Amino acid sequence: MSVDPVRVLLVHNRYRTSAPSGEDQAVANERRMLEAHGVEVSTFDRCNDDIDESSWAAKGALAVNTIWSRRSRLELQARLRSVRPDIVHVHNTFAMISPSIYGACRAEGVPVVQTLHNFRFFCPGGLFLRDGKPCEDCVDHSLLESVRHRCYRNSVGATAAVASMLALHRTIGTYTRDIDLYITPTKFGRSKAIKAGIPESKVVVKPNFVPDPPRPGPGAGGYVTYVGRLTEGKGSETLVAAWRRLPSVRLKIVGDGAFRSGLEAIAKREALNIEFVGMQPKNVVLDAMANAEFLVMPSECYEAFGMVIAESFACGTPVLASNIGSMGELVEDGVTGRKFTAGDPASLAHGVEAMLADKARLRDMRANARSYFDAHLTEDQNSSQLLQIYQDVLASAGR
Q: Of 98, 222, 342, 377, which residue is least crowded by CB atoms under 10 Å?
């Protein structure tokens, strides 16, 4: 794609290094992609490793700065005047940068694109998740619901700070006036943004991508795999429960999390055909995907995109996924995988049996999965989409 040269300032508040984030990796991938396509990229970032919670005073200062950081606004303003970007692309401002920076961009006359990697603009917890199940009470009713249920870090105070941030910036128009365009990775995410009050004309869909994709694998490992965190909302308990019905099917679980020890104890006690291999390097993970007959994604929350699905498709590996949120959108039943009822071990087990029972269809699904990847999730397609988004925003802003 041929576009005019563009200077982009990327804004991103990185997560703690002790909690590796797929979002951080997606931002890094996108930066490298832009630079490889001739875009002049500058950055403005912070890391939540620098958060100080050593005292009540420090916690109070954090709450105030989460809502409005004067320091971030002034520093970003100086950065804008130094770099003179054509466009600012924001990925995350939580918790140290704060939404105060959007007004600085507007004051300097620089248009803003915002990628919604999660649902924190509408839900203080960021996931539309409560007690392991989808929850949209803060959209359907009030942000006070999140405070009542302690949805962020199981803390009334911390949740109140995030809810106050959202309430303030909705009230003063930050999210509608100071952001020119929102990017969501799926149509499902777009529908939730519109439901929550973002104007329909301001939300476009651009998926994530997998850089340097592997060759499609043979799927000859003789096992089914799960790749991901073993935490609330990921459906790992449902997955293990389903395997009580599948004694002859080998399951390889790649990943770690708070639920691992309990699930591993159940699998050992009940002699389930499950192998836990823990966290692994990316090349080992991709190899496990490529050699699996298929991948299971049993999430019971709204995944914003599901990079695991994109990686699995890149490996030519079909996916058995919960029919919920973006997963129901990315997996086409009978074509690139199958879908089952979220949270239902019997439905999951039936899906496993159905996929394994038809080897010819499973081979077709492998080819279809890689074809879908090649058609929609490559770096080249992603760069064309993102650069066109920038051009459209600049044209609308008269730049």
A: 222
Helices (H) and strands (E) in the chain, counts: 17, 14
Right CATH for 7-209+379-396 from 3.40.50.2000, 3.30.300.130, 3.90.650.10, 3.20.20.360: 3.40.50.2000
Does 218 score more than 60 pLDDT?
yes
Enclosing H/E stretch for 169: helix 156-171
**140, 159, 299, 322 from 192: Cα distances, Å:** 11, 21, 18, 18
3-state secondary structure of 240: helix
Cis amide linkage into residue 107, ω under 30° from 0? no
Average pLDDT, the chain: 94
| Residue 9, pLDDT above cutoff 90 | yes
- What is the chain's percent helix, strand, coil content, to nearest 5? 45, 15, 40
Give the DSSP per-residue string, 195-238.
HTT--GGGEEE-----SSPPPPP---SS-EEEES--STTS-HHH
pLDDT tens digits, residue range 239-255?
A: 999 999 999 999 999 99
Question: What is the per-residue pLDDT for 54?
Answer: 87
Nearest C-alpha neighbor of 107 from the set 78, 148, 65: 78
Q: Is the pLDDT of residue 297 over 90?
A: yes
Given this model, what pLDDT does residue 18 score?
76
What is the rounded distance in angstroms from the CA atom of residue 150 to the CA atom of residue 21? 22
34, 91, 182, 390 from 395: Cα distances, Å: 19, 21, 16, 9
For the beta carbon of residue 399, count every other beta carbon within 10 angstroms: 12
Q: How far apart are CA 138 and CA 148, in angstroms?
A: 11
Mean pLDDT for 260-267 is 98
Is the CATH number 3.40.50.2000 carried by domain 224-376? yes
